[in-house]
Amino acid sequence: MRIDKFLKVSRLIKRRTVANDACDAGRISVNGKSVKPSYDVKIGDVITIGFGTKALSAKVLSLQPTANKAECAEMFEIINNNN
């Protein structure tokens, strides 16, 4: 699954276009490397999202093409939330 779609389905980022723009701006990294929106996410990857001076790290636990509100929380585990 593409990273922009994963971020939208898991509700880490609200819209896919916003996730796409964040990847293009270099604010999304996987396992320490900046990625493009077409990067294929794998189970076990650690995604870091930069929000200005803040950062959020989450580990991918499952990949689902669609998810309701209860299921999306099971798709990732928050590792580090630097607010």
Provide tags for this entry.
single chain; 5-stranded antiparallel beta sheet; 83 residues; alpha+beta; Structural Genomics Hypothetical 15.5 Kd Protein In mrcA-pckA Intergenic Region, Chain A; globular
What does this structure look like?
This protein is an alpha+beta fold and 83 residues long. It has a single domain, classed as RNA-binding S4 domain (Structural Genomics Hypothetical 15.5 Kd Protein In mrcA-pckA Intergenic Region, Chain A, Roll). It is 24% helix and 30% strand. It is built from 3 helices and 5 strands; from the N terminus they run ααββββαβ. Strands 2-1-3-4-5 form a 5-stranded antiparallel sheet. α1 packs across α2. The longest helix has 9 residues. The chain is globular, with a radius of gyration of 11 Å.
Q: SSE layout and pairings?
A:
Elements: H1 3-9, H2 16-24, E1 28-30, E2 33-34, E3 46-51, E4 54-60, H3 69-72, E5 76-82
Helix pairs in contact: 1-2
